[in-house]
Amino acid sequence: MQKQKVTFDRMQRNMPKSNREAAQMHNVFLSWSGERSLYVAKFFRDWMPKVLHRAKPWLSDIDIDKGTVGLDEIKKALTGTKVGVLFLTPENRDSSWISYEAGVLAKEVDDKSRICTYLLAGLQIQHLRGPLGMFQRTKPEQDDTRKLMHTINRAIGQDVLPKEHLDIIFDKMWPDLESHLGAMPQSEELAKPLPSIDDMIAEVLELTRATANSRKQSEWMDKYALDLKDFIPSLVELLKGVRPDQLLPSPPPPPPPRGPTATFYVKLVGDSKIKRVEGTVAAETAIGQVVVLVGNEVVAKFESVEGWWKESAQKKLLRPATPPKSPKA
Q: Which of 74, 96, 177, 281 has its CA 20 to 30 A from that of 272?
């Protein structure tokens, strides 16, 4: 036995990294909430690979390393999972955690993946409300658990174990699980009252009405169905030769430049200092003010102007004034 283990370890070291990671990849997600649910899920995690060696179950209580962010690890484990088993008891049937995990698992479900509920402590399918009641349920009995294992065997992919072989192994391992289920402790929590017959009938009626209303809201489209059937292919053919830019409106012209493009000088009456302003354009108003603008925005306004000029005009006076003297060389 020791020699076989050494040989296996050597094979693990020699195989490519991608293959080692694939060998360790989980494919069965075990969902739990509460002490009794965890009591069964923990045992099931170790028991399942003994029956089906390709099964690699993941359980948050064991498989999340210390120091990691628990919710992130759960999200990673849920992604790509082939099978989800939800361990339900009367006290956790309304658990928000199980509902969350079931919802994420439902998004991952395809034609080969499965979500199953494992009903414990006398819980029945009619006691489940909402989405949990729609998943295939498993009773904690030998025949039903056998069917669950066959479902997992088919769902987790290649190298399906022959049915006869799986049955032989299952029959040998079932007494261990049966004994553990029989020793499940009593709940210390007060289970929520199970729904009455009237409550269950009301829920069925509510779901039926919701389905009918959903259909009614789309009925108005039925009268256009035949027209659309003929119109859509013609529209597709018409659009084949059209470029995307022909379907989009032309972009608006670029805005005018807003940056200053010239320097203006202004000489005020009684002020020996020349004012210097950067702007796009300057103009003189009817009351003698000089206004400098950048685009459409006024950046400077002067009154009592003796004279003003633009630098690019080589200091040519635009109104009679005494321009500043050039500095001596």
A: 281
